[in-house]
Amino acid sequence: xxxxxxxxxxxxxxxxxxxxxxxxxxxxxxxxxxxxxxxxxxxxxxxxxxxxxxxxxxxxxxxxxxxxxxxxxxxxxxxxxxxxxxxxxxxxxxxxxxxxxxxxxxxxxxxxxxxxxxxxxxxxxxxxxxxxxxxxxxxxxxxxxxxxxxxxxxxxxxxxxxxxxxxxxxxxxxxxxxxxxxxxxxxxxxxxxxxxxxxxxxxxxxxxxxxxxxxxxxxxxxxxxxxxxxxxxxxxxxxxxxxxxxxxxxxxxxxxxxxxxxxxxxxxxxxxxxxxxxxxxxxxxxxxxxxxxxxxxxxxxxxxxxxxxxxxxxxxxxxxxxxxxxxxxxxxxxxxxxxxxxxxxxxxxxxxxxxxxxxxxxxxxxxxxxxxxxxxxxxxxxxxxxxxxxxxxxxxxxxxxxxxxxxxxxxxxxxxxxxxxxxxxxxxxxxxxxxxxxxxxxxxxxxxxxxxxxxxxxxxxxxxxxxxxxxxxxxxxxxxxxxxxxxxxxxxxxxxxxxxxxxxxxxxxxxxxxxxxxxxxxxxxxxxxxxxxxxxxxxxxxxxxxxxxxxxxxxxxxxxxxxxxxxxxxxxxxxxxxxxxxxxxxxxxxxxxxxxxxxxxxxx
Length: 604
Hints:
By secondary structure, the protein is of the alpha+beta class. It has an eight-stranded mixed sheet with strand order 3-2-1-12-8-9-10-11, sandwiched between helices. A four-stranded mixed sheet has the order 4-5-6-7.
């Protein structure tokens, strides 16, 4: 499984929030219910049932409801004042509601304990609950809003302070049957001591989590999380700023095939050694569509050999790929000669080969076995080897990326698949029988299938190549890999059509990776509908067949800023180490802090 996909999978924890009116109503109703429950459970309020209902409701709403609603309003104002991101009014209300629930649960627990000890724990429960919700607020705000720690602290203090104000006002102005004498100084001292302990604990906790990312990559973990949430909620590209900070300039390759008729270019086939990631619209994630749209003719952007190390740090880096291709097209020489499509296989590795003019294309797949990205160095080895063995000027390497399971691993130097691919290339025999060439194309965005179903903006593109009496269908889905077994299902479904060979590819777009899962291969559902698109597309591409000339080209992309060699791995390993630290330190640190706070609140 792609390591970066595991990060994209974090997006499944981000949910759509209820409307603010709904949350506000929940706050009012819950606060009233908690107040009533407290008076019913506590043994210290022997008053008539009607009084319990009325006084309990007023008491709960005054202490919890009012403080929660006002706290959310003030918090939103402060976040805007501090130029925080992500948190809108509905989010502040929901955060305050969760905090109120923490306090409410402790109030009810305290009332239950009062039944057995004949001690009223209301004030202690309120102090304990508000201190816990203060720590919770600070951590959530720091994690999601890009606020500094002190700013998160200030914004997180609103609700606890308002709760205390309402407690004091409530007990001062109400004459209950068994009023509790408030000792203000001990009350304030306990609250301050407990709050300081938890504030320092959360600060230490955050510093421990931030340290690995800052040390290894020079970026802030919580800034990255805040920008990730902002991107998922609002499609903002702010996360690119962090990637740009950790990115490196590299040189890589783009190869391409151009098919030209009397009117100009009919079809362009591009294989960049640049990876379409990391997710959503960030960096090069939607590169297959963005790059294809930069040309005024049918363009297929396939998945070249590349991993997340070669993710562009920003969308603008795609312009460098465009410039290289357009420069190569100006230099391109065309002819009308090409050879038929031939397959070679060894163990789990398979390649499909076709020669065009002075170049060749190699389609690599491991189906029906599963696989993930072919590493760039492996692709360069395949390119160099094939150019030498077959005596061609250009070799266009394609990672078909068409058989996936969550356990799929990449093809890296040292893997057995690499040697199988090299052996296959050594077996290629260049066919000297060149023939004229016809090409027909088809494109459909498949708008009735969404990105949630694994379909990117470019949908499906098909190019049928006819050489002599052989027709080969190149089928490309704008998708992040393909569910294992679906490729063969497609091949079997088109056997009756007027084609002799077919290969099914995906672009590996990561545009589809901000939704239900970090990886989102096509073919999980709607298989029959997708197959109908393939059938229709092949038929229409055949109807579109016409004689063309063909040319091939390759260019080195200079100084394209990507994640850089090993940086994506470093990012994942750093996040993993932070999670490991979290699992080990968090429980002990938080439990120790809660024990200290409990001692301060209940025994001092």
